[in-house]
Design brief:
By secondary structure, the protein is of the alpha/beta class. Among the domains are: 140 residues, Rossmann fold (3-Layer(aba) Sandwich); 172 residues, no CATH class. The strands form 5 sheets. It has a 5-stranded parallel beta sheet with strand order 6-9-10-5-11, sandwiched between helices. Strands 3-2-1-8 form a 4-stranded mixed beta sheet. Strands 14-15-16 form a 3-stranded antiparallel beta sheet. β1 and β2 form a beta hairpin. The longest helix is centred in the middle third of the chain and has 26 residues. The chain is globular, with a radius of gyration of 46 Å. It starts with 20 loop residues before the first helix and ends with a strand.
Length: 823
Amino acid sequence: MDPTNRGPEEYGHGNDRSGDDGGRRRQSRDPLTPDFGHQTPQQSRTVQLISGDFLLTVNPVDGSEIEPCRPGERPEAPVRHTAAQRVERERAAAPPVPPGPPAPQMPLLERQDERERLVRLLARGRSVCLTGPAGSGRTALLDAVAADCAGLAPDGVVRLSGHKRTAGELLHGLFEAVYRSPLHRPDREGLLALVHGIGAVVLVDDLELGGAALQELLDATPECAFLLATTPDVTAPAAEANLEEVLLAGLGRSASIELMEHVVERPLTEEEANWAGDLWFESEGLPLRFVQAGALLRQRDDRRTGQETSDGFDDDPDDTPFGRSEPADFPLPSLGEGAAPAALLASRLSEAARETLRFAVALGGEVPHQAHLPALVGDTHADAALGELAGSGLLSPAGPRYRLAAGVLTQLEASGYDERADAHARSAAQHFAWWAGHSSVTPERAVAEADAVLASMARLVPGEAPGQASVAVLLARSAAPAFAAGMHWGAWEKSLRTGQEAARIAGEVAEEAYFHHELGVLALCAGQLDRARAELEASIGMRGALADKPGAVAGRRALALVADRSGEPVLGIPAGEEVPAPRHDESASPPAGTPSAAPLFPRVKDTSATLVTRQGPPPARMTAGRPGLLRGARRNLVAVGAGALLAAVLGTVVTLGATSGSGEDPEGQNVTTEQSASEDDSENGLPADEPADDGAGEGTAGGGSESPGPTGTAGPSTSGTPSPGTSGPGTSPSGTPSSSSPSDRPTDDGPSPTKKPTKTPTTAPTETPTTPPATPSTEPTPTETPTETPTEPETSNSASGPAETVTASATQDGPASPSPTTA
């Protein structure tokens, strides 16, 4: 079968496929024919459609993507079909005409009273439930009523199939039959608003709904008059449905014999009439049984005609060793064969027709479209088998296709037609998987074949034979995107659930994750947020374990949309998902960068060095708006405590180093602060990270220092000549800070060895700092001793950054050059 060229040859009305040039040209365009010189790679088919207020992109590779529909992309209001468009749609929705000679038209016998009553009730706007057993002629009666009600309603007559359809699917089918809105599927609220104003006569055949579901359908369409054809075994409508019920019984004896004569196209003999009378009593007058019985008589006539024709060619009776053969007598079928004639009818059909019946039995009664039969059966003329089966009364129309007539499936199964059902279902699934994924097959064609595709898929799950589940997975992956694009979401959901189960059985985790993702997207479109969340989380977990980044990203986007619609955050991270970067309670890094974190106990490179660590609270400017700054992780609290302890030791270490020298006061021991960290500097990072051009870093001693020290620490001078009268910039000759110091915040002033100790404590700077200084770790204490404890304001340009350390070595001969260590 060539899915890219739908023409008359698909229906048996074209020329011979292997005889003329046209057949050779079609064969050369067959995608199965190897043509290595002109092959073009098939690309994945993506379709964008609107579902409610969502923009849905059906992606068969990584999974469908869903996002809110932007205002400029919202579809226009649906427009009603015209009368001519309704007629064209009704013609396209009818079952295809079987190939071969046209079958005789069956009259509607003994149904005139029911027909007129139904038309009267529908004309008054009443809804009617037509109840009759399978094979009682409900479909033929609906055809006649549809013709009589053509001009009753403004929106005309709408024919729907209720076979395996829910109330929601019937409402969407009604919407599509009346309105024209391509690639737009309204949500529940929008659908109810649109169908509420539809005024049509709706005929639903093979309805399987009842009770509350049927009441939901009727309440949503108050302006429509329904004619619901159903069987007695379906749940009865609710009492408040207010439906008129019309019972459909069998035909009388005379009408049954008349119907059989129309099938045979000749009057019945007395023997045949008596046999038909016995059959009427056995079958309770069901018209289907007499159509099939008439087919048995027609086959009997064909066998007689064939026997007479073969005898006419035998001119010389002496040519045969046994002489002229007598005409064979073909007796009438038995009463049991007449009541259950499926096996006997099938035995007299062609091999292609019998093979088609085996496929139909394997698919639960669903007959594939006649265009698929040549590929399934393996016969180029197998599409003609559909005409044989329809003429024998073994098929009945069901929407745009055919299925086995009532009771035929059971009769064929009893005759052994299901012996290789699994193998036939697997062959059908492999064929449909190739066909549904072909780029030339439109979503509308895939939707029309949905029942056969789903039946072949369901037959394989759960399958005991090896490889059956994998074939079902392949078919679900190919058909599900086509059903979604064709907006047949009932079939989409069934294929996804069957595929998910098949993938679980086959152990194909990647495919199972895909089906979970699609089920989540479908639930999100239907407004089922809890179910969507569960499906998407399962999909994200599986794809995270498989390192499927594109699929996981698509799942996270859909899950974020679920959280946005539900108003509840997504709690927890599914297993296998990437864990996001943890939140820290530290303040933001400065623009110029943050120094690397210093260990709590850094390794000392020089044994003669003394470790000095400073840890202080950040300026108020950097801590504003961050209430969690001092309530951070436990490691920050430990670091702050350790810094406070080391800062207390700092005063003693620096004091001992300053007083351990000789009586002379060298310039290098005049410890002052030349420049301290300021607010302006904190905007561009820590100044300790960038050495100054003049050789004096932040927190260094006098101007003779060659190596900058860390912020707020004392750096001894490298000058070897004592100069008592020389002092560093920013200090007065008396050794106290002056008000003209470039620093605008308190700094560390060590005791000056060049002046006598006094009782007056070190004076504070006269200039008020812009930011209040933090609480110093040690208080200045005026003493009578030559030493004076320096004030230690804790300054740091990082809210909870690492401590800044410097090692210094003090000897009797002179101060050593500072060795800054910035962690």
